[in-house]
Amino acid sequence: MLTIRDARVLRGPNVWARVPVVHLVVDLGELEDRPTNKIPAFTERLVALLPALDDHVCSVGRRGGFIERMREGTWMGHVLEHVALEMQRLAGGTATRGKTRATGERGVYNVVYAYDQEDVGIAAGRLAASLLNHLIYGPEADFDFTKEAEDRIIRLAERRAYGPSTLEIVAEAEGRGIPVMRLFPDRSIVQLGHGRHQRRIWATRTSATSGTAMDIAGNKDLTNRLLRDLGIPSPRGIRVSDEDDAVREAARMGYPVVLKPVDGNHGRGVCVDLLDEQAVRSHFAAARAASRSGSVIVERMFRGKDFRVLVINNEVVAVAERVPAHVVGDGVHSVEDLIRRANADPLRGIGHERPLTRISVDR
Length: 363
Fold this sequence. Notes:
Oligomer: single chain
Keywords: ATP-binding, Ligase, Nucleotide-binding
Shape: elongated
EC number: 6.3.2.29, 6.3.2.30
Protein name: Cyanophycin synthase(EC)
Largest sheet: 4 strands, antiparallel
Strand content: 15-25%
GO molecular function, one term: ATP binding
InterPro entries: ATP-grasp, Cyanophycin_syn_N
């Protein structure tokens, strides 16, 4: 059985490549004597699960080259390399480089492949090993490849994906030849450059962003008050701390209203288009749960479009309209079917990899 003895991430230029890579030490066991052409129907079964492997050129130098190599006979470490790369592509990754080399110990290989997100790269290698063992040693009742790929790779990639603004900054830096290093896999903290010239960004905040500006922008009540003081139209809002106050202020300003956490983010806890007292009471707990301070804002409801504007050096460089996930019923298909059809749109991807985000189903 194929086993992974060691797994590590090399984040910069290394002995294997000039790009960051995952390095696995893989023990093939008895598979050292069983290349792919000696395992009945192996290639066909693998390609049936991962048809895009036909795009891999491998050392042959043309489309379909890797599949040719498997039919002629190649070792399982080499297959693991290609499957791990393809797993990442399923999750929206773009990494294509890889190599497999002997360690000097019989049946043990160095499997090296590039990655976009390091923890997704490691997970891809481990899932690739599970899949290959499953195909070689027979079906396991509890191994569902589609579900495993969704849970262990695609959803992980979605959680770890850069936000749209960070992604644009990283792409611009790479386009200018500036070294980019993600410092923590679960945070969008990125280092640009090295040594005394380095700069760090966290989402849209940079090492030049003031703490005062961050505190103001993170407090919706304070932000709205400052905007109104400057004569910039903003919804009237009142900060409240309990449900009864929220009901009283909503009645005073007039329905419909919005409840939102004073200091939340990513739209968490925002409850819109509340039409009466019952709606305010039933949604108040959700808004307060998303507030770090425990306070909630009651605001007048305004309908319109939602835009995100990226400003660099006092110039607007990009504007994106943000459209909530939705489907339109047709009287025939279920909501689940409509979501599945919407997600088939090639413009939709995982996280921020494409112009539209794949619609996920939650509570």
